[in-house]
């Protein structure tokens, strides 16, 4: 699907729709420029999955893991140019028994598990974003 959202709340609501289709072990790749709304999208999805803690950018910590009925992981690979096996070893536990959202998945391309859904966000103007979601299991989403 390919839609334009007019606010962060609309982006979060769209993410909640995707979240309703996700299961433990799913990986969601979330791509787009800085400020495109990747973290906003992950926040909406995490809320819908039952995360009650604040969901903030893990830019300076690589990853967060949140308790929820289905645990949620949120990784941001921005600072990594490309993963080596040692770095991947540190990241792998985030994918264990979670639904995992990965910002800057391009930086982990050789290592990341296959994405169940690929989300791409693009700036349209200050308040609008174009969001494409390709979902392997649900082309009708
Ligand atoms: P990223 O993780 O891609 O760097 P963030 O989600 O951290 O982006 O930030 C997106 C910024 O854009 C936020 O300040 C948010 O309020 C703003 N914004 C404006 N319009 C939208 C929209 N339609 N969807 C998502 N974010 C939006
Ligand atoms: Mg971000």
Tell me what the structure shows.
The mean pLDDT is 93. The chain is an alpha/beta fold and 141 residues long. The chain has helices spanning 8-19, 38-48, 85-91; strands at residues 2-5, 27-31, 63-66, 72-76, 99-103, 117-123, 129-135. It has a seven-stranded mixed β-sheet with strand order 1-7-6-2-5-4-3. A hairpin with a 5-residue loop joins strand 6 (117-123) and strand 7.
H/E element string? EHEHEEHEEE
Total helical elements: 3
The quaternary state of the protein chains shown equals single chain
Give the helix/strand class: alpha/beta
Give a concise summary:
This protein is of the alpha/beta class. It has helices at residues 8-19, 38-48, 85-91, and strands at residues 2-5, 27-31, 63-66, 72-76, 99-103, 117-123, 129-135.
């Amino acid at each position: 699907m390919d839609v334009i959202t007019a606010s962060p709340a609309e982006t979060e609501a769209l993410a909640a729709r995707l979240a309703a289709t996700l299961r433990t072990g799913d990986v969601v790749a979330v791509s787009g420029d800085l400020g495109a709304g990747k973290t906003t999208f992950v926040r909406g999805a995490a809320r819908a999955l039952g995360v009650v803690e604040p969901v903030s950018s893990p830019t300076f910590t690589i990853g967060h893991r949140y308790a929820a009925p289905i645990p949620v992981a949120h990784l941001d690979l921005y600072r990594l140019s490309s993963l080596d096996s040692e770095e991947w070893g540190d990241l792998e536990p985030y994918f264990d028994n979670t639904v995992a959202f990965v910002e800057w998945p391009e930086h982990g391309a050789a290592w990341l598990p296959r994405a169940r859904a690929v989300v791409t966000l693009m700036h349209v103007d200050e308040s609008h974003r174009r969001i494409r979601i390709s979902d392997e299991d649900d082309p009708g989403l």
